[in-house]
Automatic annotation (TrEMBL):
Protein family per UniProt: Belongs to the short-chain dehydrogenases/reductases (SDR) family.
TM helices/strands, residue ranges: none
Coiled-coil residue spans: none
A Pfam family that the UniProt record links to this protein: adh_short
Listed SUPFAM superfamilies: NAD(P)-binding Rossmann-fold domains
InterPro entries on file: NAD(P)-bd_dom_sf, SDR_fam
Gene field: Rdh12_0
Cleaved signal peptide residues: none
Source domain of life: Eukaryota
Name of the protein: RDH12 dehydrogenase
Keywords linked to the UniProt accession: Oxidoreductase
Gene Ontology MF annotations: oxidoreductase activity
């Protein structure tokens, strides 16, 4: 597992409601089940998020603010490297958007 999964496991072990923000529903749901089994914490949930899409970031932040009564910790851990140059449908360079713009926007939207 990567750093993000280890952080999620640690938070879940501390009985925190833990939201996994993942691009892939299949891989995210597998991680949810693994973390629930390893920690006994049923409050590990999946929400879809693609930080290369600012629309996805806005939708994710809106849902979290609407559905959650509070947010205590945010761990921005998504990142890519070595991708070929590509422009997103929003006209932004994909690696820069995934690694910087998406997490920056997410943080600012969740601050309220």
């Amino acid at each position: 597992p990567g750093i993000g999964k280890y952080v999620a496991i640690d938070l879940a072990r501390r009985n925190a409601r833990t939201i996994l923000a993942c691009r892939s529903r299949k891989r995210g749901q597998a991680a949810v089940q693994e973390i629930r089994a390893a920690t006994g914490n049923p409050e590990v949930v999946l929400r879809l998020l693609d930080t290369s899409s600012l629309a996805s970031v806005r939708a994710f932040a809106s849902a979290v603010l609407r559905e959650e009564s509070r947010l205590d910790v945010l761990v921005n851990n998504a990142g890519v490297t070595g991708l070929p140059f590509a422009i997103t449908s929003e006209g932004l360079e994909q690696t820069f958007t995934t690694n910087y713009l998406g997490p920056f926007l997410l943080t600012n939207l969740l601050l309220g």
